[in-house]
Amino acid sequence: MPKGKLTGWAPGWYAGFPMLHFYFPFPFLVIALLSAVIKYEVAFKLGTILGIFLLPATTYGAFRVMGFKFPLPIMAAAFSLPFLFMESYSIYGANILSTLAGEFGYSLSFSLTMLFLALLYRDIKEERFRVSTGVLLGIITLSHIVTTIMIVILSTYYLFNRLSVKRFAILAGVFGLGFILSSSWGLPFVAKIGYTAHMQWDQLRGFDELIPPPLRLFFPLTAFGVIGAVVKRDSRVFFFLWGLVVSASLFFLLPPGRLWNGRLLPFFYYFSFVWAAYGLWFLRRLFAQLLYEYVLIPKRHADFVIGVLAVAVASVAVLGAGNRVADDWIRWNYSGFEGKAHWASFNEINQYIDKLPPGRVMVEHAGSIDKFGTPRAFELLPYFANHPTMEGTLMEASLTAPFHFINQAELSKEPSHAILGVKYPPLSVADGIGHLKLYNIPYFLALSDEVKYEAGQNPDLELLEKFKVSGTDMEFALYKTETEGYVTIPENEPLLVSERNWRQAALDWYARPELLDTPLLEAGHAKELAGKFKTASGHLGDVSRSPVTTDGSVGDVRISDDELSFTTTAIGVPHWIKISYFPNWKAQGADGPYLASPSLMMVIPTENRVRLYYGSTFIDIFGAWLAGVGWFAVLAYAVFFAWRRYAATAASRLHLGDGLARAEPQAEAERSST
Asked: How confident is the model over 123-143, as pLDDT tens digits?
């Protein structure tokens, strides 16, 4: 938070992108706050595993809040362990493997969600609004959006279950407060969701996904639990039954799109394990009778025995499965880059790049890079080598991500094709270098023999250095190509494109090298330019070019994390800015910035000196003020509540003291009389 803000511009990945604008800031905030008092590396480790260790605790707390006594809360907490150690999936969220894959925000949010659902149940049952429940919802929203979506969906249970005006008011109060407290992030998220990568997920199918092997052992107990709750009419857990039914239904009914049904499966898995604990608890009377008849254990000890049995079953399920994947992955992740056998080679590459002139670095994607610690090790070039690179995590947050992964496909033997819904080209170093020039990427680090061979034949590439990774057959080659810089004047005037699906129009344009010297402008962002430039149809069938005629030139380009300035003598001429577009960018001394193909910015200078900077939009300011007022009100309420409790305690002590003071003379008189 270099400027006291949770979100901001990060130039190190994807030609720049809005960091934590579309991803969830609270887990990172926890790490940042911890790092103020302990070493950052330790704070990072604690922050990433926090959700894993919280889930048993929040499960226990949830069942206590819902009115269950020993042993069910401890049984439910124990049965959350087989869920955490599931190895049938590693990316959906909430289990250990997903956390190790990077979903630590989901894990934290998921753990808090279980406690929130119980608190909401208590508030509705008692018909009492509590500020703490709304505060927890705000924190959950700032931790992950998928869990927030599921909370909204699952809370529809109360709309069908004896809804009254008072209960509806409680729901509105809790969700309204949660919305206000998270509005500094949530409002900009909703308002600008169109500037993301638009992932298109193909949904998972089949009962093997819904009920994987680790869950099948417990599923008979799950069925006993559901049947038992229905027979007993135990309304306390009907909400969990609703969660089980809804999460299973969404798995089958959710259409392909931006919400992946795999993200919802952890809810079904978790509720299944919780119901299994309830099923074992439901059978406790039978166990008590059997223990009494065959082991001579008194029935009054049955609850203790059944609690121990639940912990034993969970432990056997966890330890019996081996969990070698999680065990090895934990050691691999948390030993650090320096702990890997090939750290010296990785460090050598970073140190060499660190000494090069500034410029973005493109890296060939390859699974063997995992020898450095992860296949994505070079995403840390901004940290280790002080050079921006193109690929990073949080890829859905970047308008440039689809185009980067096209470049990756053209320049990699083993491309990741990470953004779904994009048609990827085959390997072609020549096309890839053309796209690197467009994005002002002067450096290219290649690994495979096929790519290095094509790179060696390309006249636009100059070999700078080769790096042999000791003990392996890996050899990297670093190349350089000439680029025109962050600010260029295009050869041809831009074309205005009025197209609802701008991304598809930009992808079509990007796939045609002959059009790359004629940028497109999204007409909706450049309405004032209508009539100034020609208009093209979205399919780009017949493109009429108009060369830019100017003797002007660009100079004195200065760039920092969230600002770029330059001088120009080409007043009134379009200037292509090789930084990703986002509505927060503002321009001084120029009209714009406008959204230009493929995902960049364009300005039209009105003065010789032009400055672009990353600022705030109205929705950012409004959301920040709304959240600020909300958090101030919560803090004021907390202080008032604490003061009232203190005053009540002090008054009680004073009253007790007065009573004792009056009693002492009477006692003394009685002693004297005696």
From this structure: 999 999 999 999 999 999 999
CB 33 within 8 A of CB 46: no
- Cis amide linkage into residue 593, ω under 30° from 0: yes
The pLDDT score that the predictor gives to residue 411 is 97
Per-position DSSP letters for 483-499, written without gaps between them: ---SEE--SB--EEE--
| 90, 103 Cβ separation under 8 angstroms | no
Distances 243 to 149, 236, 237, 258, 468 between C-alpha atoms, Å: 13, 13, 10, 22, 54
CB contact at 8 A, 300 and 69: no
The alpha-carbon radius of gyration of the chain (Å, integer) is 30
Contact between 445 and 412 (Cβ < 8 Å) = no
Segment 455-491, tens digit of pLDDT: 999 999 999 999 999 989 999 999 999 999 999 999 9
Residue among 82, 86, 62 nearest 72 (CA): 62
Task: State the average pLDDT over residues 611-626.
Answer: 94
Question: How far is the C-alpha of 58 from the C-alpha of 64, rounded, in Å?
Answer: 10
Interatomic CA distance for residues 248 and 251, integer angstroms: 5
Note the pTM of the prediction, 2 decimals.
0.90
Token readout for 245 is 């039914």
Helix axes 104-126, 131-141, angle to 10 degrees: 160
| Helical H segments across 19-154, by residue range | 25-34, 40-65, 72-84, 96-100, 104-126, 131-141, 145-154
